[in-house]
Each structure stands twice: as C-alpha cells, then as structure tokens.
Amino acid sequence: MDTEEVDDTAELEAGSTAETSTIIIKIHDFTFDPAEVVVTPGTTVTWVQEDEVKHTATSDTGLFDSPLLEKGEKFSYTFNEEGEFGYYCKPHPNMIGSVIVE
Known about the structure:
Elements (H helix, E strand, L loop, with lengths): L10 E2 L6 E2 L1 E7 L2 E3 L2 E4 L3 E7 L8 E2 L14 E6 L3 E6 L7 E6 L1
Parallel strand pairs: 3-6, 5-10
Antiparallel strand pairs: 1-2, 3-4, 6-8, 7-9, 9-10
C-alpha cells in the first residue's frame, strides 16, 4: 500500500503470466465514483483524490488504510482474495464504497 504514482496500464504479477488490471475510483464532491466496483482477484484499485479537502480510503476491516490524501494524490491496493470489501473516508464517514471481488 502506498501513495506513489501508479501506472494505469496493465501489469504482470511476479510469477504470473496473466495480466492484472487497474480500476480507478475518483474521489470528488465528497463521494467515491463509482461507489461500488466488481473486480477479479489480482485487480489493483487506485483511488484518485480530486477534492480540495483531504480524504482517505479506509477499509471497514482494517485491510487497507490510506493516509489523508490531498488533491492530486493517489492510493492503490491490490485485491487478491474474493469477497466484499467495504470502505469509507475517516474524516467523512458518510462517504462509503465497496469493492466486490469475484
């Protein structure tokens, strides 16, 4: 988990011949857009912060927790296990989203 720039092109995982993909979720107007995404195992989700106010992408279960992101910053997490993973923004807990891995 880091906030470094992410290449939006498909990448290869070590020891894998299958390409993985990256899904972009925009943070703007105090929302996650889209609020729900359905992905396959191995997909990286990148949250792109576009608001003037700081936000986080924080897992309901502690699986991932971005730092406070300023406008223009990104945070990525790769989902390897199947399941439904809810998340929210720490300073604005009414901002919620979910990643469904199947």
